[in-house]
Amino acid sequence: MMGIQLVQKSEIFIFFSGSDALRFNKITQDYTKGAIQNLFDQVTASSEAAATAKGNSNVYLNSFGGTRIKLDLPYLKNFTDSQNVSISRAELIIKVDDVISPYSISYGYPANLALLACRADGTEELVYDQLDASDFVKYGGNYDATNKRYVFNIARQVQKILNGSVSYNGFYLVNASPSLSSVARRDNRLQRVVFGGKTNVNF
Q1: Is the CB of residue 60 less than 8 Å from the CB of residue 42?
Q2: The model scores a pTM over 0.85
Q3: Distance from the CA of 90 to the CA of which of 20, 132, 139, 192 falls in 20 to 30 A?
């Protein structure tokens, strides 16, 4: 996992519906109070490059949509330098650092996560493997407790990147269900998880 960046989302509003629920909750992320130093340094970094360098050891996926992780696969397009390529499986494996990540004791790790494409303007969009039911069956994103990891198969998205039919600007890893109907919701999860960065000594 090269070029990992942590991205902050500072406020979440939760609106309740129904005849007796005329109120809302506001959740504000404040990393100046109680956050470990490495997480604080990543969230408050002055640039993407600085945040990436701070994430070499660990990156953090928080609850309530507090953080998301930006992943870059910098050599992805090298596969098409001199030939056409057909992709049947493209797995991205992201390992949990359970030495640093004690959250399974209190809340458990997220049962699943979503891997989304990053647009040129920095906004999120679904990957093609989420759009079709037959592709979504292989998409993955569920926590593998035996191997302590999350595995995504994004073959359709990678094929389109290599063909040049979609632009490549990296991916976002978010604490959300990957299903189409609920991937946008980030306000209902207490689970958090810490991942190893590219220089993590636990792997």
Answers
A1: yes
A2: no
A3: 192
